[in-house]
UniProtKB/TrEMBL annotation:
GO terms for molecular function: DNA binding; DNA-binding transcription factor activity. InterPro entries: LysR_HTH_N (IPR000847), LysR_subst-bd (IPR005119), WH-like_DNA-bd_sf (IPR036388), WH_DNA-bd_sf (IPR036390). It comes from Maribacter luteus. Keywords: DNA-binding, Transcription, Transcription regulation. The lineage of its organism: Bacteria, Pseudomonadati, Bacteroidota, Flavobacteriia, Flavobacteriales. It holds the Pfam family LysR_substrate. GO terms for cellular component: protein-DNA complex. This is LysR family transcriptional regulator. It comes from the Bacteria. Belongs to the LysR transcriptional regulatory family. Residues 5-62 form the HTH lysR-type domain. The keyword Repeat does not apply.
Length: 294
């Protein structure tokens, strides 16, 4: 016997099990009564069990038929739920978004995005990973991340990049630095200080921007320390090992013996951009980008 059990067999069986009447079930299914009878008989042969007791007056489920009716109802409920979930995933209402970020993005942009996602698309799961700019670019290109938050001037052609936050820079000085913040006149006042910077490998765009800020003030900074963590920068400044220039947003979240001077008058700005792969098939991505760029 070459018959195989197919989904249609369960559809036909459930109709008869609910109606307990072959003609009514056939009308419900828009097939002929003899055709329905053949399908049920074929199903019984495949399963090697009798599902219905039939006579001229009534149709009754056997114990095996009762068991299969309950199981079939469960199966169709699961299929219906699976279809609903697939539609949600296809529309980007459910699924997962993998996000890479620089630490400074966590002070404003990413928390707002996560709150918006929780409000608009509560079934979307998020995973976060703090990575340097270049590592984020590589991960997005390899489809290991869906979104990245970077400070870069350019990215490969396969990626889309859009600025999502424009910030000023702030000078970071030890609390005991021998100059009051109100006496600040310009960056030229700090030409002889040691500077602590994010490393060029970690953020080349940031590094070159700081170089240009100092160049505009007429000097090349003496770089004494480089790091990849804002906390380390502030700790070094606190201990009088140098001064720093950081995006102003980094002021929040750190309580140390340092003082800030916001550099409002300079032309340079700290730009945070979001990147994603143009042909990324993840349907959740569009909803995330739409929320981010609203």
């Amino acid at each position: 016997m070459g018959y195989q059990l197919e989904l249609r067999h369960f559809t036909y069986f459930l109709a008869v099990a609910e109606e307990l009447h072959f003609r009514k079930a056939a009308e419900k299914l828009f097939i002929s009564q003899p055709g329905l009878s053949r399908q049920i008989k074929q199903m019984e042969e495949i399963l090697e069990v009798q599902l219905f007791i039939r006579d001229k007056k009534k149709v009754v489920l056997t114990p095996a038929g009762h068991y299969l009716k309950n199981k079939t109802e469960d199966i169709f409920h699961q299929i219906k739920e699976m279809k609903r979930q697939l539609q949600l995933i296809g529309e980007g209402d459910s699924g997962e978004i993998r996000i890479g970020f620089l630490g400074s993005a966590m002070h404003n942009v990413i928390p707002n995005l996560l709150l918006d996602l929780k409000d608009k698309f509560p079934k979307i799961k998020t995973s976060l990973e703090e990575l340097p700019n270049t590592d984020q670019v590589e991960a997005v290109l390899k489809d290991e991340l869906d979104l990245g938050f970077v400070r870069l001037s350019r990215v490969p052609a396969a990626l889309q990049m859009t600025t999502v936050y424009e910030d000023t820079f702030s000078l970071v000085l030890p609390e005991s630095y021998p100059m009051l913040t109100r006496n600040y006149e310009g960056m030229h006042q700090f030409a002889h200080d040691n500077f602590i910077l994010f490393s060029k490998e970690y953020s080349p765009f940031y590094y070159e921007t700081i170089m240009s800020i100092c160049s505009d003030a007429g000097f090349v900074p003496k770089v004494s320390h480089k790091t990849v963590h804002a906390h380390t920068i502030f700790k070094l400044v606190e201990n009088n090992l140098g001064i720093a220039i950081v995006p102003t947003a980094l002021q929040s979240g750190f309580r140390m013996r340092v003082k800030f001077i916001e550099l409002k008058q300079i032309d340079q700005r700290a730009l945070l951009s979001v990147i994603w792969k143009k042909d990324n098939p993840n349907p959740v991505l569009k909803n995330c980008v739409d929320l981010l760029l609203k």
